[in-house]
Amino acid sequence: MVQKNYNELYSEGIANLRANDLNKALNIFKKLNKEMPKEITILNLLAEIHIKKDLIIEAIKFLEKSIHIDSRQDSVLLNLGLLYFQLNQNDLAMQFISRAKLIDNKNTQIYLNLGIILLKINKIEPAIKEFEEGLLIEKNNFLLNFNLGLAYQKQGDDTQAETYLRKCQQIQPNSYDVCITLSNIYSDQNSYEKALVLCDEALKINKTADAFCNRGILNHYLENYAGALKDYDQSIQLQNGYVRALFNKSITFLKIKDFENGWDLYNSRWNTPSYKSIKESFPKNKKKWDGTKVNILFLISEQGIGDQILFSSYLDELKPYCKKLIIALDQRLINLYQRSYPDIEFISNNLKKYDFSF
Fold first, then answer.
1. Range 69-72, long-range pairs (CB < 8 A, 24+ positions)
2. Model-level pTM?
3. CA distances, 172 to each of 176, 178, 298, 356 (Å)
């Protein structure tokens, strides 16, 4: 009976899947799967539905059943690899995609995704090899050229990175990602004018909070502080509370000696990635100092060793405000500072190793 209605049910399931009516499609293909558990087409469609529903583990189960029945399905092996990559199981991801490569070594998607996984785990040379092998098959593949450019950028070879990113511009002239990446490369080289031109191009393609923030930073470097502040405002307008823009806006305010606005916004630094790790290591349940006299005052360094030395001349001014002063700073300075300030306790700014019981 089911066999007789297979084509009708299958067509109905496909129609529902195309209409994105996933629940109806799922119910139909589950019925067919119950009667025909080894039909790989049904198993693969059930996996597709679960992927669309963002149910990755369930999708993997159906694809693994499918590949157990027919191990030569290169597309299924590739999809399994991509799903494991989403789960950050990179070794399994590479195993499945490498198996797909053994079956079909002309599929550029296989080379692309192997390279992306290798790049993610910082195996740059093997990633470059995968991208280059893919380009031997399809030299004008945009994603292969783009990711090869990213790999060379990550390796520190800006010349090669620029070569492949410029190739991307020829293939796809209006790519926001290419413009932003090239702009970042020029910025890292301190070529701010060239970086600004490409950032402007990116903004013509897509006005994003990130691109406005990037342009604000470039304008700051070029001493166009009014332009920088305007760009940060546009960035924040597009993404309310955008921490990166708030932090860089504070830097520009401080640079032009607008200390009231600058110091107020500078607190946004604690939500940036580089400062979050410092904040997370702070002693828990300790109040921020309000400037009044306390028993114990704990001072934590934020900047590098140069600034810690520069600010050391102010340490004596803190002594009247507390009975005991504890300062966390760079490990290399502790012995020097302890000799210079014997009545102050100095500890490493690697705070995770301490138990703060005071």
1. 69/38, 69/40, 69/43, 70/40, 72/103
2. 0.79
3. 10, 9, 55, 56
182 pLDDT band, cuts 50/70/90, is: very high
Taking residues 74-90, what's their average pLDDT? Answer: 97
Specify burial of residue 256 (Cβ count, 10 A radius: 0-12, 13-18, 19+).
middle
For the CA atoms of the chain, what is the radius of gyration? Answer: 28
User: Strands 294-300 and 345-348: what pairing?
Assistant: unpaired
Which sign does the torsion angle of CA 108, 110, 111, 117 carry?
positive
CA–CA separation, 282 and 29 (whole Å):
54
Span 267-305, pLDDT tens digits: 898 888 877 777 776 766 777 888 899 888 888 887 788
Contact 16, 25 (CB under 8 A): yes
Asked if 278 and 271 touch (Cβ cutoff 8 Å), the reply is no
Structure tokens at 188: 């890292």
Q: Is the dihedral of CA 111, 114, 119, 120 positive or negative?
A: positive
> Residue 325: which H helix or E strand, with range?
strand 322-329
Q: Assign 3-class secondary structure to 141-206.
A: CHHHHHHHHHHHHHHCCHHHHHHHHHHHHHHCCCCHHHHHHHHHHHHHCCCHHHHHHHHHHHHHHC
State residue 4 phi and psi, 5-degree precision. Answer: -65, -35
CA 27 vs. chain centroid, Å, equals 37
Distance of CA 9 to the CA centre of its chain: 43
User: Given a cut of 80, is residue 187 above it in pLDDT?
Assistant: yes
Share of the chain above pLDDT 70, in %: 95
